[in-house]
Amino acid sequence: MTATGVPADLVSRYSRTPTGRAWIESLPERLERGLRRWELEPDPEAGPWSGFGAFVVAVRRGGQPLVLKLAYPHEETASEPVALRLWSGRGAVRLIADDGEGSLLLERLDSGRRLQEVPFPEACAVWGGIMRMLSIPEDDRPDWAALERLDARAEQWSDELPERWERLERPFPRWLLEEALDVCATRGTVGRRGGRDVLVHTDLHGMNVLGDHDGGFRAIDPQPAVGEAEFAVAPMLWNRLPELRRNDAPDALLDRCSELAAAAGLDAEASRAWSVLREVENALWYAARPGHRGDFERSLWVASALCCRPLPGLPPASELKRLD
């Protein structure tokens, strides 16, 4: 913890750029503004915490335990409260208020009880139940218009991925890029044949599912979009790799993909396909950034294993970089 109360890992992460440093420096004043606006008192018995891109402070209002989340300004900052309003506490943390500038007042969940620590068979069932609640179809509420479309994202990737692959000097075999482009063609705007569009939590892994006060679990940090629910399976695959059976980890990963799809009532092949595309895109993102070799290898391992063609030269699943 730093002298300002901002967690040291958050300061370290965002002190590398002028924009990040300015955000870190603004947090004490933004915190005070939020406390005044919503008549809150800091709760000295809990928190604060940091997510990857947010400062989260435990607060109380009239004795009610809440959290004040101060998010780093990016696209997801604007879309998070939109999705939380649409879910209205069903399957996800309840939004109490937001200021339109990245400050969210949320109900307080149990940060000490995460789905990541639940054994996979039980976690799979819980995850599937949450997915069913979160996968609400579009209606006439205007909030939907503010959310990204996944089929449009796939169309964009069909243009961008080959150029990025060439610019990065072909960091993995062409066949894996072609697998991802095939998914763009079949799941993108032009290639789709029907399908139901729903609200999708695109980062629904075990660290983003916390215990509630009724003994269940609910999602946080949604990174929302609108499209096929199968897009949401991938994070549950790449976040628990060391647990896979050591003697046939690629087959175990495919089994998990099918089990997650079944638990949520999804199409197993669409879940696998979207996961391949997402990890190929992740691999290119990591390849362009120094210091992310372990992340790059993990993404390549997942993508190629899901294609039943594990790439040679990668670490075994048990030694891949963890993503916590």
List keywords for this structure.
6-stranded antiparallel β-sheet; single chain; 44% helix; 2 domains; 324 residues; Aminoglycoside 3'-phosphotransferase, Chain: A, domain 2; 3-stranded antiparallel β-sheet; 15% strand; alpha+beta; Phosphorylase Kinase, domain 1; 11 strands; 10 helices
Structural commentary:
With 324 residues, the chain is of the alpha+beta class. The protein has two domains: 8-108, Phosphorylase Kinase, domain 1, CATH 3.30.200; 113-319, Aminoglycoside phosphotransferase (APH), C-terminal lobe (Aminoglycoside 3'-phosphotransferase, Chain: A, domain 2), CATH 3.90.1200. Helix content is 44%, strand content 15%. It contains ten helices and eleven strands. The protein has helices at 8-14, 18-37, 75-87, 120-134, 150-167, 174-187, 234-238, 249-264, 268-287, 293-306; strands at residues 41-42, 49-50, 54-61, 64-71, 95-98, 103-107, 110-114, 198-201, 209-211, 217-219, 224-227. Strands 1, 2, 3, 4, 5 and 6 form a six-stranded antiparallel β-sheet that branches. A three-stranded antiparallel β-sheet has the order 7-9-10, covered by helices on one side. β3 and β4 form a beta hairpin. It is globular, with a radius of gyration of 20 Å. The model has no long low-confidence stretch (mean pLDDT 93).
Number of strands: 11
Count, helices: 10
Q: Estimate the strand proportion.
A: 5-15%
State the CATH superfamily name of the largest domain. Answer: Aminoglycoside phosphotransferase (APH), C-terminal lobe
CATH architecture of the largest domain: Alpha-Beta Complex
Q: What's the overall geometry?
A: globular
Q: How many domains in all? A: 2
Report how far the terminal alpha carbons are from each other: 20 Å
Mean pLDDT: 93
Content-based structural category: alpha+beta
Low-pLDDT stretches are none
> Over the alpha carbons, how many angstroms does the gyration radius reach?
20 Å
* CATH C-level class of the largest domain: Alpha Beta
Major β-sheet annotation: 6 strands, antiparallel
User: Helical content, roughly?
Assistant: 40-55%
Element order: H for helix, E for strand = HHEEEEHEEEHHHEEEEHHHH
- Per CATH, what is the topology of the largest domain? Aminoglycoside 3'-phosphotransferase, Chain: A, domain 2
